[in-house]
Specification:
single chain, 135 residues, alpha+beta, Alpha-Beta Plaits, four-stranded antiparallel sheet, 5 helices
Length: 135
């Protein structure tokens, strides 16, 4: 069977992730490896309020994983995730190899950094000789 390239987004219980980030990360990678997949890159994406409560949870951690596996693995992942209390929701997308390689490179490289909200609110430095905005 052919090996496909996948991107998986898992919404995890943020309380459990906060208590043990390594265990939550190994749980996601363990699910993928259990179905015969190979994880190329993974990392937490965002911890935020959910649009609507899921099983009583109002907050969740979005966890991103890029992996290769056979096409039958996607259905197996869905079955395993349904039995897992830590994973609230998941979505698996298939990509072509070119896009997959670029996305894995971004996750592993400097192009993929968490944005510092304080740095985004800072005003850019004024050029020499520029008049103040007040006039």
């Amino acid at each position: 069977m052919a090996i496909n390239h996948y991107e998986g987004m898992f919404i995890l219980d943020s309380g459990r992730f906060g208590a043990s980030p390594e265990a939550a990360a190994s749980e996601v990678t363990g699910i993928i490896e259990k179905v015969g997949g190979t994880v190329s890159a993974h990392r937490p994406w965002q911890d935020s309020k959910l649009a609507y409560p899921i099983n009583g949870h109002r907050k969740g951690l979005y966890y991103l994983a890029f992996f290769t596996a056979e096409s039958t693995a996607v259905n197996e992942i869905s079955g395993i995730v349904k039995l897992n209390d830590n994973v609230l929701r998941h979505l698996v997308l298939s990509h072509d190899k070119g896009l997959y390689d670029q996305m894995v490179e971004m996750v592993g490289g400097e192009a993929f950094r968490a944005v510092d909200p304080d740095a985004a609110s800072e005003k850019p430095a004024k050029a020499e000789g520029e008049k103040p905005a007040d006039g």
